[in-house]
Specification:
Blueprint (H helix, E strand, L loop, with lengths): L2 H7 L3 H68 L3 H14 L3 E8 L2 E7 L8 E8 L3 E9 L3 H5 L9 E7 L4 E3 L6 H12 L8 E8 L2 E10 L9 E8 L1 H27 L3 H33 L3 E6 L4 E4 L1 H7 L3 H4 L4 H21 L4 E8 L5 E13 L2 E11 L1 H22 L9 H18 L3 E8 L2 H8 L1 H18 L5 E6 L2 E7 L3 H17 L2 E3 L2 E3 L3 E7 L7 H18 L5 E3 L19
Parallel strand pairs: 20-21
Antiparallel strand pairs: 1-2, 1-4, 3-4, 5-6, 5-9, 7-8, 8-9, 10-11, 10-14, 12-13, 13-14, 15-17, 15-20, 16-17, 18-19
Helix pairs in contact: 2-3, 2-6, 13-14
């Protein structure tokens, strides 16, 4: 008999009745085991809770004893010390030796004698005791503990990680509250503590939910005779979630055993029919999912802000989304089946052919390209060619392209802006020459190069003669025209390898690289004569002017060659000014030995 025939036989009423009775008996046995495990679990949880609570209470009692001992020490110090300063030192030492003591105060015969620290918060435990010694001296000592005292002392009280402890005063005031109780649970807990009997052996146990988890709570008093607010109440919570997880796991195992037996004994009767039905439903669902997925992908790709197309190995288009068609100005019917040459044209195809060939060899391609749209405008695209691989064979390739025209224009605008900012930072706005800082940086660079390759260089310091008189006579706009004209002359006259800049006002600097002083002096003299012959036409007036020039060569053996060269050129310029202007003067070290040099510093007028 086949399995299908056997289970068809079991489908008779008699077999179903026997089968049902067997399932009921099995369920009863399994339920009995589950219930027995549940009550055993509760008993073990309660026993463990009481054990952990006793540990916490003993620790609290021990710490209360330590605080009582500290009260004794302070009282003895108060009685033994007649000097308040000595008593304060002793109290200060006790606070320092007990880092969890927030404050200690001592009052003798209602007179404060010593007070160290302050009570940090309302949740602070304060122990106070008044003692009269021999009827002569009344001593009151108060010790306030820091809020973290009980947290530190009870941090390692439990062996279980899910056990939590809290400390309250008998009035319900929290000293170390449970952190994971909500306001309603905290209010209920405070009420329960306040209603406990004033008995050191008082014990209260109840279930509750802490932080959403099933837990057991025990409250047990611990004598604290000197605590403000009555004795201490130690609360202990142990989460039963872990234990109940195991119980639920066992329950689930029992249920699964029963369900397995029930399912196996009943489901095989119609397994074949269900399998066929499931197969039909699966096929229908798969087809529906594929249609939905194809529709979703089609809508998504067709409206995506990127260009997407697919080309076969013969380079004919099989798909192009809306944005791709819009770029080339083609309709859907026009573009499907079109070849690359007809779409791109010969010129663009010649640019793309090497990339397409590489893609059809199985090599993805990424590139940026400038292209002309169908409307004649020019744009930029960032394209990626992705080969469609079937094993080692390339059946075609996908094209994914983004229109980056705006990004490219922004990039070009930023590059132009950077160039403009660099020009503003390095160029004198009036003359178009290097500004002072840029000129000196270039001279310093040339000095380093001259040191390395042992090159000669000469620096000109040039100043317009009687420039103030030009400004006062013709106006500052004419003075600006003179500066512009001189800047243009210097720019056109000097070599491209020379560096010319405006140092400030009417003063200019010129660095000649790879020349000796004799050559530089001849160049300076030619420059002076060109300036002298120059005419600036402004406001219908011909303006003539002259310049004085000081020359200095590079001395690399000094501490600061740049500063030394500029200073010597400045002194030579000063000598040219004092010698009648409109002349070229050399630095002291370049003069013949017989020439005497006048002393002085500063720029000529």
């Amino acid at each position: 008999m086949s399995i299908a025939a056997f289970f068809r036989t079991l489908s008779s009423r008699l077999h179903w009745a026997i089968h049902s009775i067997w399932l009921v008996v099995l369920a009863a046995v399994l339920c009995a085991n589950v219930v027995d495990d549940y009550f055993l679990l509760q008993e073990n949880e309660l026993r463990l809770l009481l054990s952990e609570s006793s540990i916490a209470v003993n620790i609290v009692k021990m710490e209360v004893g330590g605080i009582t001992s500290l009260l004794d020490t302070v009282e003895n110090a108060a009685i033994a010390s007649r000097d308040e300063e000595q008593l304060a030192d002793k109290v200060q030492e006790l606070v320092r030796d007990n880092p969890f003591v927030a404050a200690i105060s001592v009052v003798s015969n209602d007179v404060p004698r010593a007070s160290i620290g302050a009570i940090p918060s309302a949740s602070t435990a304060v122990f106070s005791r008044s003692t009269a010694k021999d009827g002569l001296l009344s001593v009151s000592v108060s010790i306030a503990l820091k809020p973290e005292f009980w947290r530190y002392k009870l941090a390692y009280a439990f062996s279980r990680a899910d056990a939590k402890v809290a400390v309250y005063a008998a009035s319900g005031r929290p000293l170390l509250p449970f952190a994971d109780l909500d306001n309603t649970e905290n209010a209920f807990l405070a009420e329960t503590i306040a209603n406990m009997a004033p008995d050191a052996a008082a014990l209260h146990t109840q279930p509750l939910r802490a932080d959403g988890a099933r837990s057991m709570l025990t409250l047990q008093q611990a004598a604290a005779p000197f605590l403000e607010g009555g004795p201490l109440v130690v609360g202990t919570i142990i989460s039963g979630e872990n234990s109940y997880v195991h119980w639920r796991s066992d329950l689930l195992d029992q249920v699964l055993i029963w369900l397995t037996a029930a399912v196996l004994s009943t489901s095989l009767l119609m397994m074949e029919a269900r399998r066929r039905r499931r197969s039909e439903l699966s096929t229908e669902r798969l087809q529906s999912d594929m249609r939905s997925r194809d529709k979703f992908i089609s809508i998504l790709v067709d409206h995506a802000p990127i260009m997407v197309s697919y080309w076969d190995a013969a380079r004919r288009c099989h798909y192009a989304n809306k944005m791709y068609r819009a770029w080339f100005g083609r309709g859907e019917e026009e573009i499907l089946g079109i070849d690359l040459q007809s779409l791109l044209g010969e010129e663009l195809l010649a640019k793309c052919a090497p990339l397409i060939d590489a893609t059809l060899r199985g090599e993805p391609q990424d590139f940026e390209q400038e292209r002309v749209r169908a409307d004649g405008s020019t744009g930029y695209v960032l394209s990626r060619y992705i080969p469609d691989m079937d094993g080692r064979e390339v059946r075609g390739f996908f094209v994914i392209a983004s229109d980056i025209t705006e990004l490219k224009q922004t990039q070009q605008s930023l590059e132009k802006r950077i160039e403009d900012l660099y020009s503003l930072a390095t160029t004198d706005a009036l003359t178009g020459l290097n500004n002072r800082r840029n000129l000196l940086e270039k001279i310093q660079f040339e000095i380093e190069r001259a040191r390395r390759y042992r090159l000669n260089m000469v620096f000109f310091m040039l100043d317009i003669d009687h420039f103030k008189k030009i400004n006062d006579t013709f106006g500052h706009d004419t003075g600006d025209a003179v500066l512009k004209g001189l800047g243009a002359l210097l720019h056109d006259t000097m070599r491209t390898s020379d560096h010319v800049g405006r140092l400030g006002g009417e003063e200019f600097g010129i660095l000649l690289a790879s020349v000796v002083p004799q050559q530089a002096e001849a160049i300076a003299e030619r420059l002076r004569r060109r300036v002298e012959e120059m005419v600036v036409w402004h406001n219908e007036k011909n303006i003539r002017f002259t310049v004085s020039i000081g020359l200095a060569d590079l001395q690399v053996d000094v501490e600061n060659p740049l500063e030394d060269m500029v200073k010597r050129a400045d002194l030579a310029l000063y000598r040219a000014k004092n010698s009648g202007r409109n002349r070229v003067c050399l630095a002291d070290n370049l003069l013949p030995p017989a020439v005497e040099n006048p002393e002085g510093q500063g720029f000529g007028a």
